[in-house]
Amino acid sequence: MSKKLLFPILMLVAANLSAQTWADDVACIVYSHCSKCHSPGNIAPFSLMNYQEAYEARYVIQYDVTHGIMPPWKADPNFGKHTGRRLLSDNEINLINAWVNNGAPEGNPAVAPPSPVFSSVAEIQNPDLSVQIPTYTIPAVLTNDLYRVFAIPVTLPGDRFITGMEVIPATAAWCTTSSSIRTTPARHSCRMRPTHCRATQPLAASEFLVQN
């Protein structure tokens, strides 16, 4: 009797996984986890701002999410909890995988969430401290990722807790900037490391939010 029940149950699970559509299931994942970098003029090599763009990149998306390449997250997910960490759940990965395997259907576009709108304005408004990275020109030809550490002297009246920071490259399409900083209490210096630079472009201002 168990064999008679197992077959329809497996068929039901397979049918549910293959029924996913862009409009109902996948768009919200892509817009929440991918589009901020995968948007025109930004750091990713292609845009994911609508169904057509996602459909054209469906196999790249499938491979990268099922192999843990995207969204990029180098921290060990099993160690500690990080605010704003970019990780997909197992359910989201399985959903995208099933969507692509089923032909990546669009579904009903009328029920799809609207494409996100990203502003070029800094997300941290009215920061307590704004500092400038020294002007640096990235070599035109790079064979590997370029790592540079900039030490920026900061004068503060005393110890402060940094509750948020934002690094703004001059041209986001050319340089991915990491949000890692290191402070030296004796000098109150902040260190930032831009990474994955790919072309000849200067780096621009960086803004810090410092809480008294």
Descriptive notes:
This protein is of the alpha+beta class and 212 residues long. It is built from five helices and six strands; from the N terminus they run αααααββββββ. It has helices at residues 2-18, 22-33, 51-56, 58-66, 90-101; strands at residues 129-132, 150-152, 161-167, 176-184, 189-195, 205-211. The strands form two sheets. A three-stranded antiparallel β-sheet has the order 1-6-3, with no helix packed on it. The protein has a three-stranded antiparallel β-sheet with strand order 2-5-4, with no helix packed on it. Strand 4 (176-184) and strand 5 form a beta hairpin. 16% of the residues are buried. Mean pLDDT is 74; it is low at 1-18 and 179-212.
Q: How many E strands?
A: 6
The parts where pLDDT drops under 50 for at least 5 residues are: 1-18, 179-212
The backbone outline, from C-alpha atoms, is: elongated
Main sheet strand line-up: 1-6-3
Topology as a string of helices (H) and strands (E): HHHHHEEEEEE
Task: Estimate the strand proportion.
Answer: 15-25%
What summary fits the major beta sheet? 3 strands, antiparallel
Radius of gyration: 22 Å
